[in-house]
TrEMBL record:
The lineage of its organism: Archaea, Methanobacteriati, Methanobacteriota, Stenosarchaea group, Halobacteria. Residues 153-166 have a biased composition (Basic and acidic residues). Keywords: Signal. The keyword Cell wall biogenesis/degradation does not apply. This is Iron transporter. Pfam families: Iron_transport. InterPro entries: Metal-bd_Tp34-typ, Tp34-type_sf. Gene3D superfamilies: Periplasmic metal-binding protein Tp34-type. Residues 153-182 are annotated as: Disordered.
Length: 182
């Protein structure tokens, strides 16, 4: 299977559905680029196998946590000073691939590592992404290693469904990390 398989019409999907999926992916990629380039301190993306993997880094931030059904609690960061956001997207149409296991490791110039740590899926009003608040030693230049392990969900479509079956690893070198709390 090629690195970036195009989706084709089949008994499961017609051209209109493929076009709608592509438009959804284009919109997701636009939102990802906006987050990485305009909202976050830094970010980037690269293609890896059947995925486009992107990241954005900003200060640690508070989040709602569901405590019981219908009961949320706002939780501020403790010692965490970095928020890492990761998108694992379909390389063919750009949409987020849910239920992946995303593992991140940050390595400072001195060799000190943060992680590996699993990044859960996060809801955000502008962009679903995998992410987590982390505690890193401080501002500086880091290498960010990301591993995306395949989701285990079932896939529709005999022609287009055999995708996202292998793990991918990407490395972003020379990332300028700015720490703090928002």
């Amino acid at each position: 299977m090629p690195d970036n398989p195009e989706k084709q019409t089949s008994e499961e999907v017609d051209q209109t559905q493929l076009d709608l999926a592509q438009r959804a992916g284009d919109a997701y990629q636009e939102a990802l680029d906006y987050m990485a380039e305009e909202v976050a301190h830094t970010g980037d993306k690269q293609e890896a196998g059947e995925y486009v993997v992107g990241f954005a880094q900003e200060e640690a931030e508070g989040m709602y946590v569901l405590k019981d059904e219908g009961r949320f609690e706002w939780v501020e960061p403790d010692d965490e000073n970095c928020h890492l956001e990761v998108a694992a997207c379909d390389a063919a149409d750009g949409r987020l691939v849910p239920e992946c296991t995303v593992i991140a490791t940050l390595t400072g110039e001195d060799g000190e590592q943060v992680g590996p740590t699993r990044l859960p899926l996060l809801w955000h009003p502008g962009l679903y992404h995998y992410g987590k608040n982390l505690e890193v030693p401080g501002d500086g230049t880091y290498t960010i290693d990301l591993r995306v392990e395949p989701p285990t969900f079932k896939r529709h479509d005999e022609r287009n469904g055999d995708r996202y079956g292998e793990s991918v690893e990407v490395t972003f070198d020379g990332v300028d990390v700015e720490t703090g709390q928002d």
